[in-house]
Amino acid sequence: MLMGQYEHTIDAKGRVIIPAKFREELGERFVLTKGLDNCLFVYSLEEWKNIEAKLKTLPLTKKDARAFTRFFLAGAVECEIDKQGRILIPGNLREHAKIEKDVIFIGVSTRVEIWSKEVWEEYSNNTDVSFEEIAEHLDDLDI
To answer: Which residues pair with 11 in a beta bridge?
Structure first.
């Protein structure tokens, strides 16, 4: 399971070190794509295959399904970790996540999220609903 929070800095070429704990879980190669809430999602190749299978089941006749599939797959790239433990985040993905310098890596069960530090702080400080309220709603799901 992917969990925890780590902070790193992206270099001028768009390279960033993947936290060692996440490298162990993700493997040498994995998929990086646009995420929701202005972050990036990172999936192991195994988990990416599960995501692809789910996307294939979405009805082609539904506009929202087509739009989501395009959004999710158009920005997807397969990444390989270099000898220093880094990956290159393409410019279009850095732009999507508003990543300029400081980044936050967050383990979220089956994926890693990469956030601009500023965007993450704004998100976590300004959520409309308190985490206590969210927890109350999750009780309905037996979590």
So the answer is: none
